[in-house]
Amino acid sequence: MNILVTGGAGFIGSHVVRRLVTQYPDYTIINLDKLTYAGNLENLKDVDNNSNYHFEKGCITDEKFVSDLFEKYKIDKVVHLAAESHVDRSITDPLIFVKTNLIGTANLLNCARQAWEGNYKDKLFYHISTDEVYGSLEMGTEMFTEETSYDPRSPYSASKAGSDHLVRSFWHTYHMPTLISNCSNNYGPNHFPEKLIPLFINNIVNKKPLPVYGKGENVRDWLHVKDHARAIDIILHKGVPGETYNIGGHNEWTNIELIKLMCDTVDQKLGRNIGESQKLITFVQDRAGHDLRYAIDASKIERELGWIPEYTFEQGLAETVDWYLENKEWLENVTSGEYQEYYQKMYK
Ligand code: NAD
Ligand code: TYD
Predict the structure, then answer these.
(1) pLDDT tens per residue, range 60-69
(2) 156 catalytic, yes or no?
(3) Which site in 63, 67, 201, 233 is 20 to 30 Å from 318, CA atoms measured?
């Protein structure tokens, strides 16, 4: 089986590529990535010599490049993660989100349709999406299910919602086998330090201010990236085409409580006085259109495909802090752009 993974040099994509390359030596895994600021081949150093792994630098919006890849590798399945993924960036520069997430997804779908020529036996287009397409919940116990109406509120979530709709349109119009999963916030190793958890761990270690948006009362449902990669593996193999699966950790935290936990975890690991790093907390202007709460009802994937998270948050967060403490060079090189420069030159 030849699987095209898009965005495999990014945070979640690199965990998915590693899992597929190592667990399925009979498969050929092709990683298509543009190596934007968020793509880092250093994330895959441990598998890049495997004979079943191939890297292709390119853009998912490039029609010729993508259709040539389908031809070159006789792609059977697509696991599509490539995207612009940071809400704050979508507020300052929405257009790139439309280009990559909407046009890029449309191009991949169309190239798959043309390459497969209506013969969809053993073919699959699997889109990795987000719970943010469902909008924002009030405080309380309500959760997003697969039936929740779409109500995206940021340019990021609107572009992901649009790409989900495009994927479904190919299922209904062309009967192309497609799947979508909508996952909650991920955390873990190799997370680019602009998102809350890696940014704050880095700032706490370096005693820099911790910019909390608004009052820190917003709620997110955190899932370890390896639990997400395992869910993607299961859906890829056992998911029913045309279906949608929600993935989440049943692990809701207000930002401020989570930030205090991160402060205390780092203090404890670095031998600082517990409470010392909480002094770095700085309340700043709220994010425009800041969604209040996300929470996923993951009962469908649990019931139908037998997936449940394996990491407890306590264990996952402690391991993540350890990973950032042990990989200071990775952190310095991604923040300075050094890795990017190196790999951009290598794959000109
Ligand atoms: P990321 O920003 O870390 O990685 C994105 C990858 O896509 C990078 O390697 C980048 O180089 C690549 N890319 C960007 N534009 C490209 C283009 N035009 N052509 C080819 N490659 C391109 O993102 P992530 O956090 O790993 O998220 C991966 C996917 O999972 C995204 O689709 C995102 O919407 C979805 N998702 C993320 C989360 C989360 O918490 N991070 C949660 C649910 C769903
Ligand atoms: P983020 O990691 O950007 O993920 P998302 O917006 O996709 O949920 O942010 C998680 C939460 O943390 C969100 O409520 C915004 C908040 N946040 C801050 O308070 N300060 C920050 O510097 C960042 C990056 C996020």
Answers:
(1) 999 999 999 9
(2) yes
(3) 233
Residues of the chain with pLDDT under 50: none
Domain membership of residue 194 (yes or no) is no
Which listed ligand is nearest to 200 at the C-alpha? 2
87 CB under 6 A from ligand 2?
yes
d(CA 296, CA 342): 39
Nearest CA to ligand 1 atom 41: 186
Task: Give residue 149's domain range.
Answer: 2-187+224-250+294-311
Tell how far the Cα of 243 is from the centroid of ligand 1, in angstroms.
22
- The helix, strand and coil proportions of the chain, stated in percent and rounded to the nearest 5, come to 45, 15, 35
Distance (Å, rounded) from C-alpha 165 to C-alpha 169?
A: 6
Instruction: Please give the tally of structural domains in the chain.
Output: 1
- Whole-model pTM over 0.90: yes
Residue of 132, 146, 164, 297 marked active site: 132
| Residue 173: inside a domain | yes
Cβ of 102 less than 6 Å from ligand 2: no
Q: Which atom of ligand 1 is nearest to the CA of 12?
A: 26
- 121 in any annotated domain: yes
Kindly state whether residue 341 falls inside one of the protein's structural domains.
no
Are 50 and 19 in contact, with CB atoms under 8 Å apart? no
